[in-house]
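Aim 2, interim progress: modelling of the DLL-bound target.
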Amino acid sequence: MAYSDIETASREDLRELQDDRLAETVEYAYENVDFYREALDEAGVSPDDVDSVDDLAELPFTTKEDFRDEYPDGLFAVDHEDVRRIHASSGTTGKPKIVAYTEDDLGVWKEVMARSLHAAGVRPGDTVQNAYGYGLFTGGLGFHDGVEELGATVIPTGGGNTARQLDMLRDLDSDALACTPSYCLYLAEAADERMMDVRELPLSRVVIGAEPFTDPMREEIERALGVTAVDVYGLSEIIGPGVSIECEEAQDGLHVWEDHFYPEVVDPQTGEPLPEGEEGELVLTSLTKEALPVLRYRTGDITSLNYEKCDCGRTAVRMDNVTGRTDDLLIVRGVNVYPSQIEEVMLDLGDVAPHYRIDLYREDTLDTMEITVEHHEDFRGTPDDLREEIESELRDVLEVRPDEVEVVEPGEIERTEVGKVKRVFDHR
Ligand code: DLL
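Predicted structure of the complex, ligand included:
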């Protein structure tokens, strides 16, 4: 059933493996990366003190700022001649985070991606159209290698070029499509414009990730394309896509490939580890990486962990799907709200299309928020009524009172054809 035996190993066996690998990783990072030697010395922790994952809480965190400070290669643990590949993640400000892979790291990545695709229902012999961007972004090549490793066929369309993308989907009978959730919506619209019904194609699943999306957004994608949408998560600093994925059987949380990446959830304010089920910031420790070992990386992503065995038989812990990041939190006149909460409330109304933007301004000392959102193609009411409905739902469910809500015609909000969608514009 599973791609590899480790996916159904007992929790005890898994734990033993994690303990051994963590001790090795800490020792390895201490010996090979000045940054970690200094950080551990400063925290008063010797690698000899670490022999199980219970000792993790003693270790200092690694942050996004550390990647920036150590730009470009201060966190590398190997010489350049042992690096086989470099990727980078751009982020919104400052220098990119440069990440490196040895040959063995690339092997691990392929393996976890093959596992992930298998969990998503892709099988050897299937065809996968890969519309994640190729290049420094980890999405394109990460999926590419994983599809080949699994024994399926990859069509490396990369991001954009939507007309050709649709032709390929139709002519090459792909079973699966890999792309961001916003690009799924874009493709569905472009297909509509060309009077093409994607639901009639053999395409049966999409593997979506790289940006947050809510349940109503997923339903919209599944309906528009006639597919099952499976959520895949990852980040460059840890490896790229393939840190965790939903199984198609349960679609109830993302299985973290814990034999390579150890997850914790901590309180974003205090950094204290939180118990199972509580929501907080995901912290990841690599257990097998050579070029770039990472100890307790603060991902900024908000989730919770669930250790119950899944219906699919996999024992790997599941993380809840990530709908927000700690730094997305908006504070509007004292009310804390995540953009994803606003998205969910609006899309649940049914008449609202999954295309919106949130603009934040500061007037004098006051923060103001404007929401612009499209109504659905088949909406027959008046924009004013829908605006009032949105305002009242946001007030009742989230206690948020935006300064302005504008309901616009389908197609008015700019679409994202390449890269990650941006929905919040902070002009402050
Ligand atoms: O986005 C890797 C990736 C590629 C994942 C393709 C999935 C598919 P980065 O560019 O380094 O790497 O961005 C990582 O994107 O910390 C999250 O905030 C966000 N993210 C990634 N996957 C998801 C997801 C890739 N499934 C950052 N749901 C992460 C929500 C996600 N957010």
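Residues 267 and 280 are 5 Å apart (CA to CA). The chain is about 30% helix and 25% strand.
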